[in-house]
Design goal:
It contains eight helices and 14 strands. It has about 425 residues and is an alpha+beta fold. The strands form four sheets. A five-stranded antiparallel sheet has the order 4-3-7-6-5. It binds adenosine-5'-diphosphate and magnesium ion. The site of magnesium ion (MG) has 5 residues, from helix 7.
Length: about 425
C-alpha cells in the first residue's frame, strides 16, 4: 500500500515532467515552422513581383502591363496584383477583389502583413525602367494567409496527436521503469520485515526461559534474601513486557498477510461490551467514568480476536491518557453499510502536529514515559493495521487538555 502510493506519485511526476518537455518542444517547433512558412511565402511573392516588375514598361507615359494572369491562377492562391504609378495611384488591379489589401499603399515597406478580417501577406516592389533606371511605378502583390493558417491548424493537430502518443508511450515506459526501480526497494523492505518477524519469533523461547526461571525462583523463595526476591520480581515483569513487545512486533509484521486473518461473522456489540467490561476495574481504580452506548446487533465479517485487540488498545489508551475523575465513552452505531465506533475521552489530548504521528510504530508523545505504564508505542500501529485489513478506516480528532476521539469505521462485510 505504501509502495503503491510512492509509485503513483513517481508516475505522476514523471508524466508531468514529460508533458512539460513535450509541450515546450512542440511550442518551439511550431514557432520555427510558422516562421519558415511565412519566409517561404514572402520569398515566392517577391520573386513573382520581381518578374512582373521586370516585364513592365512605360509606354506613352502609361504603365504597360506585359503580364496577364488567368483568373484560375489568381484564385488558386487568392493573389491580388496591383499596379501603382509614381503618384501612388492605383491604376490596375487583377485578382479577386474580396482579397484586395485594405492597407494603404506604402512604398517604403517591402513586406507587410495585414491582419484584418482577411489575413494577407503583402509585398511591394518598385518598377524600374530597364534602360533609364528610372522609377516608373510600383507593383503590389498580396496573397491570403488562409492556406498557411490551414497548414498551421493541421500542424497543431499533428503536434497534439504526436505529443499525446509520446506521452502515452512514455507513460507506459515510466510505469515499467518505476516498477524496475522500486522492486529492489520493495524486496529489501520485505526482507527487513521478515527479519523483524524472525527475530521476534526467535526471541520468544529465550524470553520464555527467563520468565519461567524467574517465576520458579519466586515460587521457591524460601531462604532467598528479600532484595533478591525484588530483583526476580523486576526480571519477571520486564520479561513479560518484552514478550508482549515481541508478540506485537510479530503481529504487526504479519498484519498485512491476509491469510493470518480469520473471516467469520462476528457480533461487534458483544465484542465491544466485552472489551469495555475488561477495563472497568482499571477505570474504577483511576476513578474514571467508563460509559458505553452500543447499538444492538452490530454484525460484521472479520477476525474476532484481532478486532478485540484493536478496540481494547483504543479503550486502554483512553483510560491510560485520561487523568482521574475523567470520562471515557464508547459508542457503537450502524450507519448504512458502515459500523461506526467512537472512543472518546476527556484526557490529556494530542497536539495537532502529532495527530499524524500517533499511528506510527513506536511513536509516543512523551518519550520519557517508559514501559512501566504498559504499552510500547505499537498499540495504535497495531490497531490501524487491524482496521485496515478489515477495509475500515480509523481517524482521530483531539484537543490538548480537553480530550481525544478515535473513530473507527468498518464495512459490514468486507471481501478480500
Ligand atoms: N486517547 C489518547 N489520548 C492522548 N494521547 C494518546 C491517546 N491515545 C494515544 N495517544 C498518544 O499516542 C501514542 C501512541 O499510542 P500507542 O500506539 O497506543 O502507544 P502506547 O500507548 O504504547 O504509548 C501514545 O504514546 C500517546 O502519546
Ligand atoms: Mg497504547
Amino acid at each position: 500500500m505504501m509502495f503503491q502510493k510512492i509509485r503513483y506519485r513517481l508516475f505522476l511526476s514523471n508524466l508531468l515532467v514529460l508533458a512539460l518537455v513535450l509541450s515546450s518542444s512542440a511550442f518551439v517547433v511550431r514557432i520555427l515552422f510558422i516562421r519558415n512558412l511565412k519566409q517561404q511565402l514572402t520569398e515566392r511573392l517577391i520573386a513573382v513581383a520581381q518578374g512582373i516588375a521586370a516585364s513592365s514598361e512605360l509606354e506613352h507615359g502609361q504603365l504597360e502591363l506585359q503580364t496577364k494572369f488567368s483568373p484560375q491562377q489568381l484564385r488558386a492562391h487568392q493573389q491580388v496584383f496591383q499596379w501603382f504609378d509614381t503618384q501612388k495611384r492605383l491604376i490596375e488591379q487583377q485578382g479577386d477583389p474580396n482579397y484586395a489589401p485594405t492597407l494603404p499603399f506604402n512604398a517604403e515597406r517591402t513586406v507587410q502583413t495585414q491582419s484584418d478580417k482577411i489575413k494577407l501577406l503583402i509585398v511591394t516592389l518598385p518598377i524600374v525602367e530597364n534602360n533609364s533606371r528610372r522609377l516608373i511605378g510600383h507593383i503590389r502583390l498580396s496573397e491570403s494567409l488562409e492556406e498557411i493558417d490551414e497548414t498551421i491548424a493541421r500542424l497543431d493537430v499533428g503536434l497534439a496527436a504526436g505529443a499525446f502518443v509520446a506521452l502515452f508511450l512514455s507513460g507506459l515506459g515510466s510505469g515499467w521503469l518505476n516498477r524496475q526501480a522500486m522492486q529492489p526497494i520493495e524486496e529489501s523492505f520485505k526482507r527487513l520485515k521478515q527479519f523483524t518477524a524472525d527475530a521476534s519469533h526467535e526471541l520468544r523461547s529465550p524470553l520464555m526461559a527467563i520468565s519461567t526461571n524467574a517465576e520458579v525462583a519466586l515460587t521457591y523463595s524460601d531462604g532467598m534474601r528479600k532484595s533478591d526476591g525484588e530483583k526476580f520480581q523486576a526480571i519477571s515483569m520486564a520479561t513479560d513486557q518484552m514478550s508482549q513487545l515481541t508478540e506485537d512486533l510479530l503481529l504487526l509484521t504479519r498484519a498485512d498477510k491476509v491469510s493470518s486473518f480469520e473471516s467469520k461473522k462476528i457480533d461487534l456489540t458483544t465484542l465491544l461490551i466485552g472489551s469495555v467490561n475488561l477495563y472497568r476495574p482499571q477505570a474504577q481504580t483511576k476513578q474514571i467514568e467508563l460509559k458505553a452506548e452500543i447499538e444492538n446487533d452490530l454484525c460484521l465479517i472479520g477476525d474476532e480476536a484481532k478486532l478485540a485487540r484493536a478496540f481494547t488498545n483504543l479503550i486502554q489508551n483512553a483510560i491510560q491518557y485520561t487523568p482521574a475523575n475523567g470520562e471515557v465513552e464508547v459508542t457503537g452505531n450502524r450507519i448504512g453499510q458502515e459500523l461506526l465506533v467512537n472512543i472518546e475521552d476527556t484526557g490529556i489530548g494530542i497536539a495537532s502536529e502529532h495527530l499524524d504521528l500517533v499511528f506510527d510504530r513506536l511513536w509516543r508523545a512523551d518519550r520519557s514515559r517508559s514501559y512501566y505504564k504498559g504499552g510500547s508505542g505499537l498499540g495504535l500501529a497495531i490497531t490501524q493495521a487491524i482496521i485496515y485489513s478489515h477495509k475500515g478506516t480509523i481517524t482521530v480528532t483531539s484537543q490538548v487538555d480537553i480530550g481525544s476521539c478515535f473513530t473507527v469505521s468498518l464495512p459490514m462485510a468486507f471481501t478480500n
